[in-house]
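Model the whole thing, not chain by chain.
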Amino acid sequence: MVKLLIDMHAHLWDGHFEENKRQILTVCESYGVSKVLVSSLGGYYPDEEEIARLNRATHQFLREEPSLIEGYCYVNPGNPDAPDVLKKGIEEYGMSGMKLWVATFCDDPRVFPLIERCIDYKVPVLIHTFYKAVGQLPYESLGSNVAALAARYPEAKLLMAHMGADCLRELKPIQPYPNVSVDTSGSIFRRDDIDYAKKLLGADRIVFGTDMPGISFLLNYGQIEEADLTPDEKKAVFGGNALRLLKRS
Amino acid sequence: MNGIDVNCLWGSWPFRKLYKNRFEDLLKIHSETGIGGGYVSCMNSIFYNDPFEGEADLHEILQGSGAYRQLLTVNPTLPAYESDVEKGVERFGVKGVRIYPGYHNYRLDDPCMEGLCALLRKYRLPLMLTMRLEDERLDYLYLPRRIAVPDELLKFAGSVRDIPILIMNLRYGEILSCEDAIRNQPNLYIDTSGIKDPVASLEEITKHIGDRKILYGSQYPLNALKSTLYEVTMAEIPRESKDRILYRNADDFFHS
C-alpha cells in the first residue's frame, strides 16, 4: 500500500454506527489507511432532529479516533437550522468539510449561504453526484448542478462524489471549473473510468474515496492501482490531492 | 500464484470506448497479476446478428495462446443456433457456452432453454449464465432485461441439475438470496465479477456458501481486474480458500 492513503468518502449509517465504526477501523488497520473522512447518513430527507443525531455520531467517532478520522458536517439545506448546523459542525465539532446528499440539488438557492460559509471556513464540500439510467432520485445532483454551483462560487472547494457515477456524461459539465475535484468512491469500477477522468480533468483533480463500509474498499483501491497513472499521479490521487483540499490556510 | 480468470472478454463494447481490449492487454495484466490463463468470451458476438462470425474472430485471436480457452456465445432464440454449437465444438474446441438472456431478451423458462440444455448435455459442455455486464444504473441506449433473483434464477437452476452452471456477475445481495441453492446444489457455481458491495464481502459470502463454489472471474476489460482480484487476494480468508477461488474450483468446474 502507498504511504499516504486518504479515503475522502466514507459513512456511518443510522442505526449501524458501532458496526460501521468497527468495519472502517478494520479496513484502516488491514490496509494501512492514513485518514478517513466520514459523514453519517440516514434517510433521504432528514429533519433537524435526525441531522443532529447523525452529526453527533460523526463527532463521537472523531473524538474516539482523532488521528485517523475526520468528519464532514451533514446538512439538509431545506431545514431552517442548516446554517447553525454547519457552524456547530465546523466550529464546535471540529469537522473538516460539509456533506450534501440528496435532500436538495446542490445548486438550489438554499445551498448558497452554506457554500459561502464553507468558503469562509476554507473547507471542502462533498456533493453526492450520481447519474442513474434507472432510479434517479428527485433531487439527486448531476454534473450540471455541480457545474452551476462552481460557476457561481469559483472560490469554493467542491468535491463531486462518485465521479458522477457515469463519468462519461457527468465530467464534461465540470471540466471548465478547476475548483471542482472528483472522488472515485462507489460501486462503479469500470476499467477505463480513471484514465478517462485523467484525460478530461487531469490527475490533480482526482481524489481517492471508497464509500465504505457499504461499498468495498478494495474495489476502489484496485481501480486506482490499475489506472494508467504515473507514480507521482498515483500518490497525488491516493493522498496528496486530498491534503490540498483539506488545507485551511 | 497461477490463477485462472473464467470471465475474460475480448472485442468491442458498443456503448463506450474500451482502452484495453486487445488480447495483448489481457495477457499483460494477467501476467502482471499472476494469472496464468483464462476462459475468454467475445463481446462482439453478443451484438452480431450472426454471433458465430464473432466466434470465428475470437478463435483466430486465441490460436497458440496456450492456457486461454474459448467460451461460445450463443443466442438460443436465433434459428439454427444449434449448428453454431456443433461447429464451435468441432472447429474451435470451445469449453463452454455463454448466454446473455438480459441482452437477448428471453426468460430462463423460455422453451429455447430446453433445447440449449439438450445440446449442452449432448456435447458435455457447461453453461455460463451472464446476469449482467454493466451496473444497470449506467446502461446507455439499451436497457437489458433483468433476470429476477431469486425467483427466475432458482426456478431455472432447480430444473437443470445435470449441467454445470456458472452464474456470472451475481451481486452480493443476490448471492445471499440464493445461498441455499448455491451451497447445496452440486452443479451451481458463481464467479466473483459481481462482488462489489460491502467491505469484507467475500469473507461474508464464504461464511454462507463456503469456498468451493466460487470461481475467480474479472470481466476484464469492462471491469478493473485489480478490483476483483484484490477482493480475493487481500480478503481475510484462509490461503487455501483463496487458492480454491483463484484456480482449483475452475479446474473442478471445467473438468467435472
